[in-house]
Design a protein that fits this description.
Helix 3 packs parallel to helix 4, helix 4 crosses helix 7 and helix 7 runs parallel beside helix 8. It is globular and about 70 Å long. 29% of the residues lie in helices and 23% in strands. The protein has 504 residues and is an alpha/beta fold. This is Dihydropyrimidinase.
Length: 504
């Protein structure tokens, strides 16, 4: 009988705190030993010249989410998680959208049915609160948090999703009492509606108008308001997909006041600009997302936020629609008016390669910082750490092996999502995740037709960590109770797991 199922040897291990040479021994999906010259494995991977890092955790993806009448999201759980695997990820966290007038748990049951048995990565759900009735706030959310679903999202924009300030405060108060983490999409819907109506009266309805109807001020104001509401409710929040320096300044000022906030940004705000929405023949529809890409100055500010710690999360906000499709970007109404173009772009497969190339290889950030904002901090923020997000004895063997020397050009033809284009087409990158190992299931990039059984599925999310442990504003929690379950079809139930938070 072999001591290990798998040994990864001769690689350079990188975590959020260390970079060192060692081998990793894996047994039954867990890291059981880290050391030199390990022997006795059924299989060995030689990682010479490569980095061995925690598999990416993308905590902001949209998969199989209802998107309006006649609109269909391009990815189901099979294609979305397959694309994630090829991008170096081992866990993704999509959203369960509460349908208005429908219990949260009923919506969650539907998402579980869509995901179960279909996923190539581990999957866990955030809950979008769109209808915060007394029953939802007083009964459903506390019960779901008790079951382990401890991350909520609220919107300040989109007519069918947005909450008013009173409902946001009520949701934040429930989060404070139950220990849930709240993510906030910050854009001022009333200002957006005002600008859209003005543009339409002027006949300005091409995709480029999407950016001018959602200017920086719309995001900055809503960011300030969300942070003020969190300050009033005395609860930590996550400000998602920040696109510019003015919103970053609101985050920094709030932290100085003692507000507990984590910032997140995405690859579109490092690589795209509003000029991309000006493409001929409605090509700009490919880049419609919210907040929209800004300008080169905003790109530089977002890089500064990554370098200095304003952002502790780097996510994709993967929200794919087909471009040339009546159910996607060029739906009948979307062909005539930008307001009907579905918001969102694909990105789960290119999130890590873009940041590795432009961040690590171009010398903007250290390798440890890359690991922190693409894996470790996601696990800490949403309660998966230390079971995920690190390389340590006892952790899940969710590992990505990166080859820093490979150079490629991003082409949609090489990607695996369900969309028919990539907004990053033609972008040159250096460094790719050549192999992924999700709990011992080795995924080789060159073996596309030989996949193992579908990966784990997390029917219960987790207990969350105090978000402040990421930014060091208060002492971290000690002995936090982590609860995590894997696929029902693997026959594993709710697993107790204890660990300690780290202060970065």
């Amino acid at each position: 009988m072999t001591e290990f199922d798998l040994i990864i040897e001769n690689g350079t291990i990188a975590t959020a705190s260390d970079v060192y040479r060692a081998s990793i021994g894996i047994k039954d999906g867990k890291i059981v030993q880290i050391g030199m010259q390990l022997t006795g494995a059924a299989k060995t991977i030689d990682a010479s010249g490569k980095y061995v890092m925690p598999g990416g955790i993308d905590s902001h993806v949209h998969i199989s989410q209802p998107s309006g009448e006649g609109i269909v999201m391009a990815d189901d759980f099979a294609s979305g998680t397959l694309s994630a695997v090829f991008g170096g990820n081992t866990t993704v966290m999509p959203f369960c959208l509460q349908e208005k007038g429908k219990p949260l748990r009923a919506s969650l049951t539907e998402y579980h049915k869509l995901a179960e048995g279909e996923c190539y990565t581990d999957v866990s759900f955030h809950l979008i609160i769109s209808d915060p009735t007394d029953a939802v706030l007083g009964q459903e959310i506390p019960a779901l948090v008790e079951d382990g679903y401890t991350s909520l999202k609220v919107f300040m924009t989109y007519e069918d999703l947005r909450l008013n300030d009173a409902d946001i405060l009520k949701t934040l108060d429930v989060a404070r009492r139950t220990g849930a983490t709240v993510m906030v999409h910050c854009e001022n819907e009333d200002a957006i509606r005002f600008l859209i109506n003005k543009h339409e009266l002027e006949g300005n309805v091409a995709p480029r108008a999407h950016a001018s109807t959602r200017p920086v001020a719309v995001e900055r104001e809503a960011t300030h308001r969300a942070l003020s509401l969190a300050e009033i409710a005395d609860v930590p929040i996550v400000i998602v997909h920040v696109s510019n320096g003015e919103a970053m300044e609101e985050i920094m000022r709030a932290r100085q006041r003692g507000v507990r906030v984590i910032g997140e940004t995405c690859p579109q705000y490092l690589t795209l600009t509003a000029k991309d929405l000006e493409g001929m023949d409605w090509e700009g529809a490919k880049y419609v997302c919210s907040p929209p890409p800004r300008d080169e100055a905003a790109q530089k500010e977002c890089w500064r936020g990554i370098e200095t710690g304003v952002f502790e999360l780097f996510s994709s906000d993967h929200c794919p629609f087909r471009y040339d499709d009546v159910t996607g970007k060029l739906n009948p109404k979307g062909r005539e008016n930008f307001r009907h173009i579905p918001n969102g772009i694909p990105g789960v497969e290119v999130r890590l390669p873009i940041l590795f190339s432009q961040g690590v290889m171009d010398g903007r950030i250290e390798l440890t910082r890359f690991v922190a904002i693409t894996a470790t901090n996601h696990a800490k923020t949403y309660g998966l750490y230390p079971q995920k997000g690190t390389i340590a004895v006892g952790a899940d063997a969710d590992i990505a092996i990166w080859d820093p020397e490979v150079r490629r050009v991003i082409r949609h033809a090489d990607l695996h999502d369900g969309s028919d284009y990539s907004p990053y087409e033609g972008l040159e990158i250096q460094g790719v995740a050549d192999n992924n190992d999700r709990r011992g299931d080795y995924h080789g990039r060159r073996r596309r037709t030989r996949w193992p059984e579908r990966a784990g599925y997390l029917p219960f999310c987790h207990d969350t960590l105090d978000a402040l442990s990421l930014i060091g504003a208060v002492p971290p929690m000690a002995g936090a109770d982590f609860r995590l379950a894997t696929a029902r079809n693997e026959g594993i139930g709710l697993l107790p797991f204890r660990g300690e938070a780290e202060t970065l």
